[in-house]
Write a structure and sequence with these properties.
The protein has about 100 residues and is of the alpha+beta class. The chain has six helices and three strands; from the N terminus they run H-H-E-H-H-H-H-E-E. It has one domain. A three-stranded antiparallel β-sheet has the order 1-3-2. Helix 1 packs antiparallel against helix 4, helix 1 packs across helix 5 and helix 2 crosses helix 3.
């Protein structure tokens, strides 16, 4: 429970403010969760590493990426995005998962 609260605080801190809006502005009008994560990790590498460090076990990427998806979902109106689809998408380490796709409003 403590780690979950800590992680939510870190996600809100790292994705809050202008970070997320800056990343979204650099993406295509339609983008996947993993497009967002890739751009975020390119632009704010140290912040992404800090988020991963909280879950430094084998599930770190999955857990952090799920937290990012939850953040985007919870803040979609203020971010000016909407869900448009869920489909398979290639993610880090070439694994494939079902991913959310977004569209700018």
């Amino acid at each position: 429970m403590h780690n979950e609260i800590l992680m939510n605080s870190i996600v809100n801190d790292k994705l809050g403010g202008l970070y997320t809006k800056k990343i979204i502005s650099k993406l295509n009008d339609e983008f996947s969760l993993y497009d967002f994560i890739l751009k975020f990790s390119e632009e704010y590498e140290s912040e992404y590493i800090e988020m991963l460090f909280v879950y430094k076990g084998k599930e770190a990427f999955k857990t952090v990426n799920e937290q990012i998806a939850s953040y985007l979902n919870a803040n979609k109106d203020s971010l000016g995005i909407e869900n448009i689809d869920r489909t398979e998408s290639e993610i880090i380490f070439r694994s494939t998962v079902e991913a959310e796709f977004w569209k700018k409003k």
